Amino acid sequence: MSANQVIDKILSEAQSQAEQIKKQADEKNAKERQKFQAQLDDYNKETDRLKNKASEEAKSQTMASARMQIAKDNLKVKKDILDETFNLAAEKIMNMDAADYQNLIEKLILSAVQSGDEELVVDKNENRIDAGFVERLNSKLSGKGHLKLSALRADIGAGFILQKGKVRVNGSLKVLIDTARENLQTALAGELFGQ
């Protein structure tokens, strides 16, 4: 074999090895690209999943906040209606005619009497509760009727205070309205918080 043939054979084998190495490198590169693409696809899927989860959580929080605000607004409207209702009820009681007012107060006093010998304190401007009214009350207390109208007057608007010594039962209009208001507001708060 001549030198040129040897050189050509070496070059041919080198070319063949170079092509083999290039083919192996291309295959390895393709596998690496596939592996990288699979990792990139997994990363994109996880990113989308996290994005969707964050979006759902944000939407859920927004909806919960909106529901809470609606409930608060609803409660405020109900409270405003209650306030107006109680104000109207107080005004109506204050302006009742003597007979209706006496019937209402009589029921309240009869249910509040403890010993029957308490003093009955009324508002400083009260003219519907008098000695005759107290006598009728005493007659209905069957034997324990020794109530007396106090000379002391209080600034209670309407209603009464029964007192004996240091023991007082406050049946003033303000206390009665406030008690009813608290009970209803507790029920409304229960609605707000789902109790």
Notes on the protein architecture:
With 195 residues, the chain is an alpha+beta fold. It folds into 2 domains: 1-95; 97-186, ATP synthase, E subunit, C-terminal (hypothetical protein PF0899 fold), CATH 3.30.2320.30. 70% of the residues lie in helices and 12% in strands. The protein is built from 4 helices and 4 strands; from the N terminus they run H-H-E-H-E-E-E-H. The protein has helices at residues 3-94, 98-112, 131-140, 173-192; strands at 119-123, 148-154, 159-164, 167-172. A 4-stranded mixed sheet has the order 2-1-3-4. Helix 1 (3-94) runs antiparallel to helix 4. The model has no long low-confidence stretch (mean pLDDT 85).
Tally of separate helices: 4
Enumerate the spans where pLDDT stays under 50 for 5 or more consecutive residues: none
For the largest beta-sheet, the strand count, sense and barrel status come to: 4 strands, mixed
* Strand order across the largest sheet: 2-1-3-4
Q: Classify the beta-strand content into a percent band.
A: 5-15%
Radius of gyration over all CA atoms, rounded: 46 Å
Q: Output mean pLDDT.
A: 85
Q: How many beta-strand runs? A: 4
Measured between the Cα atoms of the first and last residue, the distance is: 104 Å
What series of H and E elements makes up the topology? HHEHEEEH
Principal-axis shape: rod-shaped
Number of domains: 2
- Given the helix and strand composition, which structural class is it? alpha+beta
Helix content: over 70%
Keywords, separated by commas or semicolons:
4 strands; hypothetical protein PF0899 fold; rod-shaped; alpha+beta; 195 residues; 4 helices
